């Protein structure tokens, strides 16, 4: 029961963070000379974290405080009641050398009716390096060109217009990423992933959700243990895998390795790369690819529909194809353990 109460607290703390009104006034605002700020560290045990890169002469930290309403005790607090509840919290926003440290913690670890959600919003130089940690809220990062790292145990992650090294993870929320480049590592244990306009070394992983990709370029890895994958316009070297869902791929350019253990696979390859490896354990596979290239074909399924293979040398029947197309060249391996294969 104690574990359940903690999980409920985290869930509703996260909800409270999302419910924050745009016109709500911050409890505290602290400013610093932007020229002196190179890194940012924010840590809270019960709220969301937001970072926005700016070109302003001042860096600014805003602190927002709300009552947690997961137990029906929400609503506005009087100044006196807020100050009384804050006695159970550590709260500080300070400059430490060339960095800003924003910190809050519930000293009692009591998430009862008098607990608070403390959120931070930071407006800092674009080149700042960030380190973010919250146990009960969302993380939002926008316009940062320094390294961005962070973790939340109970909220979503959103990253926009960022460059360099990005490493963010959540144990209980979805992830969205847009218009970012560099070394991108995003991981969730319990939510979906949506990514668009990314360029670089991209590693996207979820243990319990679907993945949606659009306009990704570079070395791409997208893996889910429990959901479908849909992707449009992947360029470079891509690995796409799911243990429990279908895969639909459109406008694929370059090397591709895709596999599903329980679902169909439908792929449109516009330009072959170094190799093409597609695998289905239980389901159908449909592949459209350039058939006028030099290809080493190695295909197997319970039933294969290949149409006419012009300029082919090798052997084939209804269950396998092995040989060279147009003199051979690019390795193409298509495997369906239980199901049919259709080639176009």
Summarize the structure.
By secondary structure, the chain is mainly β. 7% of the residues lie in helices and 60% in strands.
Q: How many angstroms separate the termini?
A: 56 Å
Q: What's the count of strands?
A: 25
Note the total helix count.
2
Approximate shape: elongated
Report low-confidence residues grouped into runs of 5 or more.
1-20, 70-74
What is the CA-based Rg, rounded?
25 Å
Order of helices and strands: HEEEEHEEEEEEEEEEEEEEEEEEEEE
Task: Describe the protein in words.
- The chain is mostly beta strands.
- The protein has a domain at 1-155.
- It is 7% helix and 60% strand.
- The protein has a 25-stranded mixed sheet that branches.
- The model is unreliable at 1-20 and 70-74 (pLDDT under 50).
Defining traits:
344 residues; mainly beta; 25-stranded mixed β-sheet; 2 helices; 60% strand; elongated; disordered N terminus
Reconstruct the topology from this structure:
Blueprint: H1 2-18, E1 28-33, E2 39-44, E3 49-54, E4 58-67, H2 79-86, E5 89-96, E6 99-106, E7 116-125, E8 129-134, E9 139-142, E10 148-152, E11 157-160, E12 163-170, E13 175-188, E14 193-206, E15 211-224, E16 229-242, E17 247-260, E18 265-282, E19 285-288, E20 295-300, E21 303-305, E22 312-316, E23 320-325, E24 330-338, E25 340-343
Parallel strand pairs: 2-6, 2-8, 3-7, 3-9, 8-10, 9-11, 10-12, 11-13, 12-13, 13-14, 14-15, 15-16, 16-17, 17-18, 18-19, 18-24, 19-25, 20-24, 21-25
Antiparallel strand pairs: 1-4, 4-7, 5-6, 20-23, 22-23
